[in-house]
Amino acid sequence: MNIDLHYYGTFLAARIAGFEKEEAIVIAHSAQYVDESNISMVDSKLKELLGRAPQPTVMANDEYTKYYLNPIEDWSDSQLHEIQSAWMNFHFLPGNLENEIPYQGVTSYDGWFSDWKLDAEQLKQFKLICNTNSTTVQAIINDTSYNKSEPNLHMIGLRMHVLADTWSHKYHIGTPAWYINDAGNSVKEFFNGEWLDLNFNVLKSSTLPHILDDNPETRDYFALPPMATYEGIVYLGHGRMGHLPDYPYLHYKYSPQWVSNNKGSNSEIEKDNPKEYMLGFTQMVYALKCIRNNTPFEVNKYAELEANVKEKIQNVINLRKVDQSDDWNNLIGELYGEKIVPFNKDEWHGKFSASPTAEDKKKTDYYLFNEAALNHRDCIEKFLNSKGFSLK
Ligand SMILES: [Zn+2]
Ligand SMILES: [Zn+2]
To answer: Which InterPro entries is this protein grouped with (predicted)?
Structure first.
């Protein structure tokens, strides 16, 4: 998901769940900050204050430009560790541990440069694909506490990012894997009652790795081009789908290798984002209520919203716009009397830098977010280990 849902949508969900305005702002800012806190945002003073190396929650495009220019056949453990720590823990939460989604795809493939064969390690890795309503999402929400004296708002916001992303990133994995993340031969959109081919443009190497602007009106979308190695960087997350999974209004289908039994042409995955995003929003409200009231969170449960509020939210989600931020903020203004200030990614770090002493710095949103990021990562590692899995 993008800033419209992560910042404005999360603020609205927190207000509906009963959080005060000031609390909801911190929760929403944290949720969006997960998409900002790459290595360049991590202050060198943090390591000493935290007592250990900080954990970036995302990677910036320019961090892997080198991997487009010199494709890697065999990643080193430390390279994969860097990728998986950011992408799997914070954006593509592993959620198929019990094999809820069985592997139904190709077992071998004759490629352009080399052949591919499914092995036991890849089958096990398939259980780390992102999915909604997983035991992992249940574990992290139930690990999130709230009380008035120590509200833990940064962790709450961070985890709302992770929960929300399970609805957009379902079926993808946060590591480079062609057999899971490739888009397949065609991507279609359900529009005005029929399935239409998208104008799905592959980027030229000169523009990599930046994705160009998509256009919902002409239905022009951009994605990363295929690479000649099965673990190429374009096969990380949804690079090969461009931004499609993150658009709330899009109802689309595609043919990844993991459901295809004949070179990517037989089976399809359908993703109805307007419906799924509404479920994601109501699950977020439910999760926030559980956290706020200290009651257990269970999967497949959703908050009941007032019918007119739900309809207004669905109308925003349905808008064919790549960024619905203004529409969410207008709705916030309509429901709560005033809009919220637009997100400013440098605000938190600015206040941290301006704080004179270590004690002051440790009270800042910036420090508390980074502390939450480490604790969140450790929580997932412990949970996965208890189930017989580990990230690199
Ligand atoms: Zn994300
Ligand atoms: Zn995404």
So the answer is: DUF6765
The answer to whether the CB of 225 falls within 8 A of the CB of 170 is no
How many other C-beta atoms are found inside a 10 Å radius of the C-beta of residue 115?
9
User: In the prediction, which pLDDT does 208 show?
Assistant: 63
Residue 259 backbone phi and psi in degrees, to 5: -115, 5
Q: Which ligand is nearest to the CA of 237?
A: 2
Instruction: Count structural domains, the chain.
Output: 1
Tell me, yes or no, whether 70 lies in a domain.
yes
Expressed in angstroms and rounded, the spacing between residue 193 Cα and the centre of ligand 2 is 26
Q: Residue 28 Cα, ligand 1 centroid: separation in angstroms?
A: 13
Residue type, 19: F
Tokens of 118: 């499914």
Q: How far is CA 159 from the centre of its chain?
A: 11
Residues 174 and 84: beta-carbon distance below 8 Å: yes
Q: What is the pLDDT of residue 360?
A: 98
Where does the pLDDT of residue 205 fall: very low under 50, low under 70, confident under 90, or very high at 90 and above?
Answer: low
Residue 201 pLDDT > 70 = yes
Which residues form the domain of 81? 3-386
Q: Nearest ligand, CA of residue 171?
A: 2
Q: To 10 degrees, what angle do helices 77-90 and 153-169 make?
A: 100
pLDDT of 207 over the 80 cut:
no
Tell me what pLDDT residue 264 has: 45
* Residue 392 maps to a domain: no
Centre of ligand 1 from the C-alpha of residue 137, in Å: 14
11-47 exposure pattern, b = at least 16 Cβ within 10 A, e = fewer: bbbbbbbebeeebbbbbbbbbbbbbbbbeebbeeebe
Near ion ligand 2, which residues have CB within 5 Å?
246
Residue 391 lies in a domain: no
CB-based contact 144:163 (threshold 8 Å): no
Beta-strand ranges (E) seen in 43-192 are: 108-110, 115-117, 188-191
The per-residue pLDDT for 209 is 61
**CA pair distance 160, 275, nearest whole angstrom:** 18
Pairing mode of beta strands 269-272, 251-254? antiparallel
